[in-house]
């Protein structure tokens, strides 16, 4: 954690190293330990890596972003990690919802969901390549949140 605290800010993200990995690494249910990342940068990590990190730093939850998830948020590793994505209908390419997470005084997390708009934007994002969403089957819990 001290390495993260020592990162000079503001800064550019390098192609390799800690800052790159904090931004670009992704959870993967099919990986144990560390694996290659389809993004072509950084790594993927398994449930075991999440558990080890939380135990080592006496934490309960990792909150991360920077990856499209269909329902706006998605848990991983028995709810030890949550990915939150706050851009609905990302770049007009994905029909994803967005989410905002709130944490109350007792550390209970709750989510607000923003459904994608049916309107098409007048603008088209022309930046870096899009990050594809992970496709997961809808559950009763997540379906009720976005329907």
From TrEMBL:
Gene Ontology molecular-function annotations: protein serine/threonine phosphatase activity
Region (Disordered): 124-147
Example of a GO cellular component annotation carried by this entry: cytoplasm
Pfam families: Metallophos
Matches recorded under InterPro entries: Calcineurin-like_PHP, Metallo-depent_PP-like, PP1_catalytic_subunit, Ser/Thr-sp_prot-phosphatase
Positions in coiled-coil regions: none
Span of domain Serine/threonine specific protein phosphatases: 1-118
Listed name of the protein: Serine/threonine-protein phosphatase PP1-beta catalytic subunit-like
Gene (UniProt): LOC111128969
């Amino acid at each position: 954690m001290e390495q993260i605290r020592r990162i000079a800010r503001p800064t550019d993200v390098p192609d390799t190293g800690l800052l790159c990995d904090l931004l670009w690494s992704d959870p993967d249910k099919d990986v144990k330990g560390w694996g290659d990342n389809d993004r072509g940068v950084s790594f993927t990590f398994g449930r075991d890596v999440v558990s080890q990190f939380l135990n080592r730093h006496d934490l309960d939850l990792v909150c991360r972003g920077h990856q499209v998830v269909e329902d706006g948020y998605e848990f991983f590793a028995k709810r030890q990690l949550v990915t939150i994505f706050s851009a609905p209908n990302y770049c007009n390419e994905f029909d994803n919802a967005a989410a905002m997470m709130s944490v109350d005084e007792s550390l209970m997390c709750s989510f607000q969901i923003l459904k994608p708009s049916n309107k098409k934007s007048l603008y088209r994002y022309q930046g870096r390549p899009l990050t594809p969403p992970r496709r997961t089957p809808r559950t009763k819990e997540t379906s009720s949140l976005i329907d």
